[in-house]
Amino acid sequence: MEKIVPPTPQAPEFGAADCFVWNADSLALDPVTRVSRIGIDLIRGVDRVRDILLDNTLRFASGAAANNVLLWGARGMGKSSLVKAAHADAAGRVGDDTLKLIEIHREDIDTLPRLLGLLKDTPFRFILFCDDLSFDHDDTSYKSLKAALEGGVEGRPENVVFYATSNRRHLLPRDMIENERSTAINPSEAVEEKVSLSDRFGLWLGFHKCSQDDYLAMVDGYAAHFDLAVERDKLHRDALEWATTRGARSGRVAWQFIQDVAGRLGRRLG
User: Fold this and answer.
1) Which residue among 33, 99, 147, 241 has its CA within the 20 to 30 Å range from the CA of 12?
2) In sequence order, what are the beta bridge partners of 129?
3) What digits encode the pLDDT tens for the residues 194-246?
4) How far apart (Å, rounded) are the C-alpha atoms in residues 105 and 109?
5) pLDDT category, 15, cuts 50, 70, 90?
6) CB–CB of 259/269 below 8 Å?
7) CA 77 to chain centre
8) How confident is the model at residue 159 (pLDDT cuts 50, 70, 90)?
9) Cα dihedral 249→210→73→251 (10° resolution)
């Protein structure tokens, strides 16, 4: 009987940390004492979406109404970094240690109702964060997410918002949506069922490929922050060559280039 009965959820110790990871196997929240993140002032080239996300996070942290947020678009443009940075910035401004960030893995979405049950009757406010959220063919766990966000009898607890990042605006493969349209008896209803998941997010923040100027601004920002003694023209030449070899310009590529520069200078970052 012990093997088939799910474990009893452990009472979380929310004072242990500001960030947690949801462990679906033990139905527990594992505290993260050292979070991998950068300051919000180092995230360049996405000023408008940065300000929108930070404003939404600050309103939520202060107890006001706020939206679920879907950050979608180009790879490496700082979607997940922005979520973690916005949480840190908002928590620092509010300063009462009540705003918590909880990461839930994509494969554990079907346990989301159990997690919400642990969070709803507490004095804390929670940003649930799922990085690289998407759903494949024959995957029905998106229905659990839909119900947890806005549907169901209870709905989403007022002390919880959901932030997700994805390369897809509708979280589902385009060919999956098109297949539903072509094979369903009522195509519009079948497609609506799939696409309506994105409607649960009140804010859609798009991230697009950056220009050369934005890319170099990211490099300059990192170099100045970490006080890397490299002549500016040489830094830009090397940064553009690095981006060419990677075949892309993005915040991730800029960060990887700065790590390489710091390594050649014998420096540590962080």
Assistant:
1) 147
2) 103, 163
3) 556 777 888 999 998 889 999 999 999 999 999 999 999 999 999 999 999 99
4) 7
5) confident
6) yes
7) 12
8) very high
9) 50
Reported as a single tens digit per residue, the pLDDT across 97-120 is 899 999 999 889 889 889 998 998
What DSSP string runs through 80-129? HHHHHHHHHHHHHHH-SS-EEEEE--GGGGGGHHHHHHHHTTSS-EEEEE
What type of residue is 63? G
pLDDT in tens, 49-90: 999 999 999 999 999 999 999 999 888 889 999 999 999 999
Q: Distance (Å, rounded) from C-alpha 100 to C-alpha 124? A: 7
More confident residue, 96 or 91: 91
Distance, C-alpha 50 to centroid of its chain:
12
* Token pair belonging to 206: 């798009």
Dihedral sign for Cα atoms in the order 86, 136, 203, 60: negative
Spatial CA neighbour of 201 closest among 81, 28, 67: 67
Give exposure, 178-197, as e/b (b: 16+ Cβ within 10 Å): eebeeeeeeeeebbeebeeb
Q: Which of 123, 108, 115, 193 is nearest to 156 (CA)?
A: 115
Q: In angstroms, rounded to a whole number, what is the distance separating the alpha carbons of residues 128 and 143? A: 17
Report the C-alpha gap between 135 and 172 in whole angstroms: 5
